[in-house]
Each structure stands twice: as structure tokens, then as C-alpha cells.
Write the C-alpha cells for this entry.
Amino acid sequence: MKRILTTKPIKEQERFAYWHDMVGGAIVQQDMFQLSSQTFSGQIETGSLENIQISELFADPYHAVHSKRHISKFGEDTFLIILQTAGQGYTEQDQREAQLQPGDFILYDCTRPYIFRGEQPYEQLVFKFPRSLLLARCGQAKQMTSLRMPGTQHPVSSMVSTFLRNVASSYLDFDSVTQVRVAESTLDLLATALSTAFSVKLNEVNSMANVYRERARAFISTHLADSELTPSLVAASQGISLRYLHKLFEAEGQSVATLIRNRRLDQCRRDLGDPKQNHRTVMDIAFQCGFNDAAHFSRIFKRRFKMSPTEYRISALNTLNEQTNHDLLFPYKQ
């Protein structure tokens, strides 16, 4: 039996606050920020398959943050599989980012902070289960968070994506024995997808390719303010060729230059939405993040986030103020 929660009967001005509370209670606690001034609409349908909770979401754009505060307060020892079924989604965890297209899926570890951003109306399937169930099958799973599993470009992950969608559409019709078998098969296939898509053997250490990739990400993160940061500089810092660096990131569906640009844009977005940095100008923030052309920055920021930097700052700070007032009136209950 599914539990269905929807914003439809809620007053328009109260819908996003309702969504904030009901999604946190239904899946995992997180802070949410609306990315549009338009009336928000969302629906979530949740059921269970043995130890796996399955949720189907339909929602307008918003930004979600699962923070250290939520982890220390609620302490869920669970994994999430996010499978994009419509629209686009952007994920971030452990300094790894992924852009999800329909059919793609990623792994979130709820014992560590993560970010999700849906910048257009989207639909997702969310599978939630105890971490131990997947770690027993793939010990390196906790090191594979926010890594894009392509739903169309890789034979194994494509098969798993289709399987997950079929499970979500039919699990309520299974008898108890079939539920057990399908739940076990689901976890087995997820472990297989994680191990094969990223060339990591079950319960073994990461390959050198993963090591170089993570070091490159770390170097990019610590040098965003350097306007001279380029793929060539990143490759040189790791002692590898530019060609090999590009090959390392091919499987994730984005170039190194795109990764650098998106990291800078995401840092600017965070700073613009931070009330502690409200005294800084938009371009001061942009230059501090490595941009050196005001017109170019404004253009690509609007292309990525669907509004200008100034519009985003106003919207984010207004939403934060509204959410703070809501939290004072309606504090979370354990």
C-alpha cells in the first residue's frame, strides 16, 4: 500500500513549507529552498519492498541540503538511490557532482552531507535502504556517492535502471516470497552496477584511475579562485597527461573544463545565498571564485540557474528568511 502526499489541497502560499516538512518526514531530513517565485507543486508516493522504501516524486524546482545538523540530530544509517525519470537533476556529495538525465541514477550516503538541485519540474524514483545491505555486497559503495550511473550509455547500468523502474511500477502486486526475492535481486544488481560501471572490484580498493580522479577534483576545489585554473594545470598538478585526465572524466558525462566552470558557479550560488556574505557585491563573489569577465559570468550563471545572479540572491535570501520564520513557528519533531 502506498502513502500519497500532495500539495494540491494546500493553500498556494503554504505549499512549499508543507513540501519541506512532508518530504523530510517521508524520505530523509533536509533543508529545502524554492528556486522560483511561482506557486509550488509536488507529490510523493511511498511504499516498501521488504527493507527497501520506494518513493516516487513529482516536483517543481527546488534546492535541497542534507547537512551535518540533520545527520547529528537524526542519524540515519541509510543509502539512497536517486533515479531520474523526467527533467534534470544535479547532485553533489563528497566533492563529487553529477548531472542526471532521465534514466540516470546515483547513490547518496545519508551519513554524510549532500546536495540536490532540481532546476526544472522533474520526476524521480528514490530507493532507501540500510547501508549494511549494500556494503555487504560492495564494500566500496560508500566511496561511490554522487557518481552518475548512465541510464542509456552503459549496458549494465542501463539494465539496472530499467529493472528499478519496473520494480517501482509493480512491487505492490508481488506476494511475500516474490518481494523477498526481488528485494535481494535489487541489491545484487545495484552492487553489480557500482562495481562494473566504475571498474571497481567487489570489496577491493579503488583503482589508480579513481585515485587520480579524486585528486584532480580536490585540486580543482582548492584552486577555484585561480582564474588561470585550466585542465592543463590540473593534469600537470597530478603528473599525468591532459589526454589521460580527459579520459578519467569521460565516464561521468562532463569535461574537466565543464567541471571547473560548474564548481565555480556552484560556489558563487552558495555565496550569493549566504546571508553572512550579503555585504559583498555580486562581482566580488564572482571574481573570488575565479571568474574575470562580468558579462560572461552573468550569462553562464543565468543559463545554469535560470535567473541572473542578482535575482538568485534576492530569491534565495527571501526564501531563507521565510524558512527561518516557518521553522520558528513549526519546529521539527523527532
